[in-house]
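Private note to self, pasted from the team thread so I don't lose it. C-alpha cells:
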C-alpha cells in the first residue's frame, strides 16, 4: 500500500483534510473533548502571508491518509538549525507500512535543504505506540525537557515593563 501513496507538500485546498487529521490525532491521543483549530487557521497560518508552519500530506487515490505539520527550530546548545515536528498522523488503515518513517524522512529532507541538522518533537508520555515508533526510527528521548506553555491571562498580562 505504501508504494501507492504519494507524499507531497500540503496545499490551501487540503486545509479541511489537514484539520480533520489534527482532530483525529487529538481524539486518539487526548480524548473526544479536545478542541482543535478550524480549517481557517490552517489556511491562514499554513499558506498565507502569515505562514507559520509547513504541511506535508500523504494521498492515496485522491484521499488524504496522513498529514504532518512542522516548522523551523533552533538549538543554542547545538548551535544549529533544526526542524520541529508539531503533528504527525497516519489514518489507521495506512499504518504499519512505513508511511510514518517516510514522513519523518521528509521532515529531515526539508530541514537539510534549509541547513538543519536535527528533528525535534514532543510526545505525550502515555502515547506508548508513538514512543515506540519514534525509537524504532532512531529518535532518542531528551534527558531534561518538560514542555511548558504560557497562555491565556498569563500570556496577556505578563508585562515587559
Ligand atoms: C505513530 C504513527 C505516526 C506511526 O506511523 P506508521 O506509518 O504506522 O509507522 P511506520 O510503518 O513508518 O513504522 C516505522 C517503524 O516504527 C515501528 N512502529 C510503528 N508503530 C509502532 C508501534 N505502535 N509499536 C512499535 N513499533 C512501531 C515499526 O515497526 C517500524 O519499525 P521497523 O522499520 O524497524 O520495522 C502512527 O501510528 C500514527 O499516526 N498514530 C496515531 C497518531 C500519533 O500518535 N501520532 C504521534 C503523535 S506525537
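Design output:
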Amino acid at each position: 500500500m505504501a508504494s501507492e501513496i504519494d507524499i507531497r507538500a500540503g496545499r490551501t485546498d487540503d486545509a479541511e483534510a489537514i484539520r480533520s487529521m489534527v482532530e483525529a490525532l487529538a481524539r486518539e491521543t487526548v480524548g473526544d473533548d479536545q478542541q482543535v483549530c478550524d480549517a481557517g487557521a490552517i489556511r491562514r497560518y499554513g499558506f498565507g502571508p502569515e505562514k507559520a508552519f509547513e504541511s506535508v500530506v500523504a494521498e492515496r487515490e485522491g484521499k488524504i491518509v496522513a498529514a504532518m505539520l512542522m516548522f523551523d527550530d533552533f538549538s543554542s546548545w547545538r548551535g544549529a538549525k533544526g526542524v520541529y515536528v508539531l503533528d504527525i498522523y497516519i489514518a489507521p488503515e495506512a499504518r504499519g507500512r512505513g508511511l510514518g518513517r517516510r514522513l519523518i524522512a521528509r521532515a529531515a529532507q526539508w530541514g537539510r535543504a534549509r541547513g538543519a541538522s536535527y528533528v525535534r518533537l514532543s510526545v505525550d508520555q502515555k502515547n506508548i505506540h508513538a514512543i515506540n515508533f519514534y525509537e524504532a526510527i532512531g529518535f532518542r528521548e531528551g534527558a531534561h525537557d518538560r514542555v511548558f506553555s504560557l497562555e491565556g491571562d498569563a500570556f496577556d498580562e505578563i508585562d515587559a515593563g
